[in-house]
Automatic annotation (TrEMBL):
PROSITE patterns attached to this UniProt entry: GATASE_TYPE_1
Transmembrane spans: none
Record localization: Cytoplasm
Lineage: Bacteria, Pseudomonadati, Pseudomonadota, Gammaproteobacteria, Candidatus Johnevansiales
EC numbers on record: 4.3.2.10, 3.5.1.2
Source organism per UniProt: Candidatus Portiera aleyrodidarum
InterPro entries linked: Class_I_gatase-like (IPR029062), GATASE (IPR017926), Imidazole-glycPsynth_HisH (IPR010139)
Keyword Lipid metabolism on entry: no
Subunit and interaction comment: Heterodimer of HisH and HisF.
One Pfam family of this chain: GATase
Protein name: Imidazole glycerol phosphate synthase subunit HisH
Cellular component terms per the entry's GO annotation: cytoplasm
GO molecular function term, any single one: glutaminase activity
Gene Ontology biological-process annotations: L-histidine biosynthetic process
Catalytic site: C82, H188, E190
Length: 208
């Protein structure tokens, strides 16, 4: 098995790689090489920064359509982390509205603190509640705490696509979503201590 962490110039690539090394002996590559990506068994799409810049870099490195093609034709397991989650949605309110890869039906909305006074971005630990049973929850209790850094959150009306939810600033956020072979998370499993490591291990062992 080869696990590829997509390198498109943004994201906590080495933090993610180091976390995965703690839970598997499989080969791990940080790469933007098309051949390596095509031959991989797992893809991880991390990301930090503005979604518009992330999409620009993916297209510049000719990875945008490659990833979409692999998802649709190979049903390859993909994990989108933080901005990686946003990229796989229909659209985002960030950067005056941006279209995503449109694989999971959901929109990325901006936190607004007009009614509730809370800090934006959310930086720190928050609880995640199980919304639906799935192998990604193996060994993880509903209400476990994960580490977040974000100003935007995902909202989907398709309940079957939601695995985990949290609340911040009076808003429910769908922080674990999935469709077929794709899992997306708003939190950073690589920064979420032993619970995050268990989540990564579950993803690596998961057979869609």
């Amino acid at each position: 098995m080869a696990i590829i962490i997509i390198d498109y110039g943004v994201g906590n690539l080495y933090s993610v790689a180091n976390a995965i090394k703690k839970v598997t002996k499989e080969k791990i590559f940080i790469s933007n090489n098309a051949k390596k990506i095509k031959n991989s068994n797992r893809i991880i799409l991390p990301g930090q920064g503005a979604i518009k810049d992330c999409i620009k870099e993916l297209k510049k490195k000719e990875l945008y359509w490659l990833i979409k093609d692999l998802i649709y034709t190979k049903n390859i397991p993909v994990l989108g982390i933080c901005i990686g989650q946003h990229l796989l949605m229909e659209s985002s309110e960030e950067n005056n509205s941006v279209f995503g890869m449109n694989y999971i039906q959901g929109v990325v909305k901006k936190y607004k603190n007009k009614k509730y006074k809370f800090k934006i971005p959310q930086i720190g630990w928050n609880v995640v509640y199980k919304h639906k049973e799935h192998p990604l929850w193996n060994g993880i209790k509903s209400g476990s705490r994960f580490y977040f850094v974000h100003s935007y959150y995902v909202k989907t009306n398709l309940k079957n696509n939601i695995l985990g939810i949290t609340e911040y600033g009076g808003k429910r956020a769908d922080v674990i979503t999935y469709y077929n072979s794709v899992i997306t998370v708003q939190f950073h499993p690589e920064k979420s201590s032993f619970i995050g490591l268990r989540f990564l291990k579950n993803f690596i062992n998961w057979l869609p």
